[in-house]
Structure formats: C-alpha cells, structure tokens
# Entry
Amino acid sequence: MALRAPYLLFLGDAPDKLAAKTANGIHQWRPDWCLGQFRLPDCKTDLGIPDMTLEEARAAGAETLVIGVANRGGRIGEAWREILFQAVALGFDIAAGLHQKVADVPGLAAAAAAKGVTLHDVRHPTESLDVGTGGPRSGKRILAVGTDCSVGKMYTMLAMEKAMREAGLKADFRATGQTGILIAGSGISVDAVVSDFISGATERLAPAHDADHWDLVEGQGSLFHASFAGVSLGLLHGAQPDHLILCHEPNRPHMRGLPGRALPSLKECMALNLQCARLTNPDVQVLGLAFNTSALADAEAHDLMERTGETFGLPCVDPVRTGVGPLVDRLTAKG
Amino acid sequence: MALRAPYLLFLGDAPDKLAAKTANGIHQWRPDWCLGQFRLPDCKTDLGIPDMTLEEARAAGAETLVIGVANRGGRIGEAWREILFQAVALGFDIAAGLHQKVADVPGLAAAAAAKGVTLHDVRHPTESLDVGTGGPRSGKRILAVGTDCSVGKMYTMLAMEKAMREAGLKADFRATGQTGILIAGSGISVDAVVSDFISGATERLAPAHDADHWDLVEGQGSLFHASFAGVSLGLLHGAQPDHLILCHEPNRPHMRGLPGRALPSLKECMALNLQCARLTNPDVQVLGLAFNTSALADAEAHDLMERTGETFGLPCVDPVRTGVGPLVDRLTAKG
# Structure
C-alpha cells in the first residue's frame, strides 16, 4: 500500500485546527506533496496553502484526495459524500484514516472500481500478513517507545528522519498508525491487525535493508498501558531495534484514558523495554529521551531535560523546543 | 457466543488420532456433552462412543455438529460438505475451529439462515469488543503462562477446573483458543481479535464475578515467543490474575516454530510474567509450575519436578502424570 502524491488535503468543515491535525501533520512533514487544500464553507481553519477546487487540483497534478480532518467518532460527514463521489469521478484516489471506511460509503467503492482509482482506508489493514519470526535482519532500526500513549512518538521519529537526512544519513520513517501512514504515504496500522500478526506486520514494515540504512519505526502505546501493551510488545519484538528513544510527557496526571493509573518511572520503563527488546536484538540500547515539554515554561523545561539527561547519561531533548540534534549526534559519533 | 450441547462429534476421514485431537479433547473434558461420533468410511480413529447418523443423533437430542478433526491447512474437506448441508437441513448448529470458515462454504450460510440454525466459526471472533481498562474487578482468576507455545496451558487449566470443582470450589475454565472454546462451549480466540482489543477481549471473557468464584483463563503463547508475545502480554493484563501457573515442557530443543531460539529459563520467565502482571494486579503470585513430562521416563520426571519444586519453593506437577492436586491444595490452604 502506497499513496500516490501529490495530495489535495480535504479539510471539510473542520471547526478548529485540532480537528485538522492530520492535515497539519502532512503539511508540516511533507510540504512538497501538498498542492492545496479543499475547504467547505464552514471550515474554520487554514493550512496557509492554496485553496483549490477538485478540478483545479486535478489539473495541477494532484493524485490523491487525503481526508485530513477528523470529527467526533471518526465518521464520514454527510456533507463530505458528494465531494468524495466528485473526486472519484475526476480520477482521484482517496485516502483516509477514519474509523468509518470511505469504502463503506454506499456506492463509492463501485464508482472507484469503475473509474480505476483506489480507496485507501489506512486504519484498516488489508494486506495478508505472516507471523513474525524474530530472525536477525540487516539494516539498522530505531523505535520510539513511551511511558504512555500520545507522548510524541510519531513527531519524534519524523523529526529524527528530517535531521538524519540533513546529516547525510539514509533514514526512512516507518508509520504504524493512521496519521503517520498518511504523512509517510505508506505503512501499517499495527494496532488494527489481527493480534497474531503484530510482530509480523512490523517485520514487514521495516524489512531487511542496506547495512547503512536506518528505519525509524513509529511506536504505539506503552508496555505500561493496561489497554494496549500487547501492541507495544509485538511492535518492540518485530521492530528488532538497535536503538530505542524513550518518549515521555512530564507532568501527565495519569495514563491516557485511565484516570487514577500513574505513569511508570522513566527508569522502569527503560529497563522493561530493554529487557523485552533483547529477545530479538541482544545489542539494543537506548539512544536518548524525547520529552514533550509543551506544558512547561522554557527554563523549567530546560532544567528538567538537563537533569534527566545527567541521571541517565543520555541526551534528553524536546523535538519541538530543542530539536533532536543530540540524538542524531550520538548516531554519527559526534555525541 | 455459546454452543448448544449436546454434541455430535464429526471425525470425518481423520487418518489418525492426532488429526482428531479436538474431538478427543472435547470427549475427555466434556463427556456428558458428547452423544456420539460421526465417521466417514475412511476414518481411522475411534473415540469409543456410539457411531450415529445425523438423523439418529438429532433424534437423540444432539443440537450441534462439532467439527472435531483438522486436516492440513485447516481446510474443509470436499467430502465433508454434503454432510454439513444435511446437518443444517436437520436443524443442527455447526461449530468449527478451522482456519477456513464453515460460513464460507458456498450456500451454507444461506441454508443455515433459512433453517434458523447457527454456524460457529470459533477461530474468527465476531463480537464487537471494547479496549481493556485494567480496572480492578471482583472474583478471582488464575492464568496459565508458559515458557513457550503448546506447553500444556489448556490441559493444565481444564485439569484445574475439574480438580477445583471436585474440591468444592466454584471454578470455570475460560477458553482463549479454538480447541478450548469447542471444549468449553464458549470463549474468545484472543489471538484472532484486532490487536487493540487483546486485553479488552480477555476482560470480557473473565468479567467481574462473585468473590469466591475462580475463572481459570487459558493462556496463549509466551512473553518470550518472538512471534506471539504481544498476545501473551495483552492476555496477562486483561486476565488480571491473582495467580499464575507457569507451564513448561522440559527438554524442548527450541521455541516452537523458531529453530535456534532457546527457551527462557523458568526463573526469568516467572520474573517477567510477575512484573508485567503487577500492572493490573499488584498482588499477583505464582501458584506453581505445570510440566509436560511426556518425553521423560517416570523416575526422571519425578526427580525433575521435585528438584524444580524445591528450587522455587512451589508445587511442580505434571497434570497428566501426577494431577494438579498440590496446586489446588495451595488454594484451599492445605498446601
């Protein structure tokens, strides 16, 4: 599964920037793929790229209409359906990461088949997968792990890809969730595969590669999240990482979605991830820590990262506030 | 999902006893549910219960035809299809744990719907599941964990159910795989659910119960199996066990399906399972060890179990060779 760029980003009737965060992510990390945005009259956010009609975008070369907006429940809005049919008729592929499949919009799959275009529901894997083997494979891999869900794993790994490429390294982000897949143009929603195939899906996603090539595998969940730890462990084994980056949001009051349940300490989170990762890569090590310090003032954030870095003898960064330079420096032996 | 007993066990053209191991398991653990067996002329095995035609079994009260035989690849034999249609026409439900669904036999689902009977493909969960929460719940639970796949978890927990009931305890086996489901008459194939729902499926399977009630949750895989550990971890968190039983087959040369990959030590397997299980039950403990010593001579087996028991200060049994009495005694404070 690979999406065809360039994209027209569909923002629909997004009530605010947060509702269009997928579109924002795609535009931030893959600006060259984003020809324009398509907004309905009620749309309250703006990516700052050209507004285009479907016809204008198609004429400019857009290949895929990407649904970059999510509304409550991940449904496909009534107001969107006519647009989707028009897009198919104009020869667009459509890509979406919603719970509800665009392929389930009555009549749309048939229209797409008749036109010869593809509907990509990236949250719903369609590939036939094998179980993982854990067998050693060439190439190098880095995996983002976390104390919790939604602590910045995707952002960290996209920042790593950018910085590593700028440093002359061969690096590819490997997406394991729907937003990451829409940004990367390919990937597998690991939390949506049948559970027997979690590690196998990850092996497929980041297969053997050149010895000097880095796959940067987006993590999911946390070994300490009572809802999703199975996904995290299968991903950890399947990724066979040489390095882990431990992602964390300081001051989070409880595990996401589980009030009253405390986050693990950085030390125990690091130790358990290393212990489990050794099953498929005995040489795994922690490259560093990536914090989301957006809730902290600048001085407080820097102080915390400095103290944490000293505690572990590892770089501790905030990909937004400081960038990931110190992590990349460790890979290039400058660190 | 609950199967309707009693059963007629379909052995088909099973070439040997191993091919009919599902039927053997059902007959061993639920003899009262097994009215008879249905064998095709080429069948080379015998459960020692009455051979019945479909008509005879139906007249005797059989409600479900259970496919108790597996052939290569888990396919539905050509020779079986006519029987399945006849069974549906006579008002049987059909239950199977094969890779190929009986519901996918052309025309069979329509015939079943027309007749008002149910096709149970127990390897393919159809329930709408929620994600797990890890929230504490009443009742007590025991989970079988293992150094590897196929080390006797299901057998151990069925033996525990029998022995605990004989000791006057309230105990129910909770099946997490297809054979266990056919034996128990209900359950969820946890390795076949979408990976986000592993722990949620297990919470559904063994929900809050009376304070003096025991759910005996069949385990799957191993935290040390590179293919399936994610399933095992989600199951461990979802089961929220008060006690673990560590299952193991001594002298196994390598992890099942993974030549060259050694089994973990009992000590590290016990430690990691306890550490991870504490996330949802801080008071979890190991009840004892259950070995499959079928490859050892009697003296050697007993010596090994005695030494292992002393090493860990816990009972070490073989459910077949010694029974699980010492494990049950620990629960009833006789141990």
In short: The first strand of chain A starts at residue 7 and ends at 12. The mean pLDDT of chain A is 96. Residues 138 and 208 of chain A are 5 Å apart (CA to CA). Chain A has two domains: 7-121, 140-331.
